[in-house]
Amino acid sequence: MKTKFLLISTAVLFSLSSCKKSAENVTVANNQKTQETSLHDAFNCEMKVAPKGGTVTESNGPNNKLWGNGSVIKVNFSGGSAYVRSKIKQYAKTWENDANITFNFVADNAAADIKIAVNNNNLAWSYIGTDSKFYSPSMNYGWFNDNTSDEEFRRTVTHEFGHALGLNHEQSHPDANIPWNTQAVYDYYMGAPNYWDKAKIDFNVLYVAPRTGLYYLAYDPLSIMHYPVPARFTTNNVAIAPNNTKISALDSAYVALAYPKN
Ligand SMILES: [Zn+2]
């Protein structure tokens, strides 16, 4: 698979021009909701890796945590309203446009590979790829409710399910070359609402993946896996990926290569 991946990556890279959005227009039986008009102002997702699950070595995802191609991945829920669950399903399934993967949402008490918790802890996180199988919950949504906007559901769910498919944070790409103002980054993430320690900030924000053994396409500042980097976090005062809310063309290309449909 590795050889195939490397051989075809360049061709696919330039053949995809836009992400597919058909599933985003699914109508959910709830048009009474008041929609928030802005995005959650503290999008901070923690990427969790199993301690014994192998080393994360790739900028866009470690191949040793990929699901088998064509897998039907079972997903269950704990918590969350019917509306919130419907939105999580809707946006999770947008990855199926490009990846040869099926997310099969099962009953709460049924065995599952991805176990979603919906709560009010203000945290979003997921384990990477098949590490999900070994943890319950394996994915957390801590700020969704019936007033959450569709854009916020889309941004957060596609990001977390990107992790569940095996993708890492894009700001860790070896070609990202982000001129971090590291003190500003530490000051922000160590404060409310995150209270992250230095190690967690280093891993989730400032980490630069080594090239050795990488599966990666070009650095993609439009990736849904990229943290929003406000201008104050950079030494040249330029914001990066400030408003990524959908699967990018390169995100689509990556999962199409990792999970080819033919
Ligand atoms: Zn993340």
UniProtKB/TrEMBL annotation:
Q: Which domain of life is it from?
A: Bacteria
> Which InterPro entries does the protein's record reference?
MetalloPept_cat_dom_sf (IPR024079), Peptidase_M12A (IPR001506), Peptidase_Metallo (IPR006026)
Q: Which Gene3D superfamilies match?
A: Collagenase (Catalytic Domain)
From the record, what ranges are coiled-coil? none
Pfam families found in the cross-reference section? Astacin
Signal peptide interval: 1-23
Domain Peptidase metallopeptidase, chain residue ranges per copy: 63-209
Q: Can you supply a Gene Ontology BP term from the record?
A: proteolysis
Tell me one GO molecular function of this protein. Answer: zinc ion binding
Q: Does the keyword Transferase apply?
A: no
Q: Which UniProt keywords apply?
A: Signal
- What SMART domains does the record point to? ZnMc
The record's PROSITE patterns line, in alphabetical order, gives: PROKAR_LIPOPROTEIN (PS51257)
What is the name listed in the Swiss-Prot or TrEMBL entry for this protein? Answer: Peptidase metallopeptidase domain-containing protein
Which species is this UniProt entry from?
Answer: Pedobacter cryoconitis
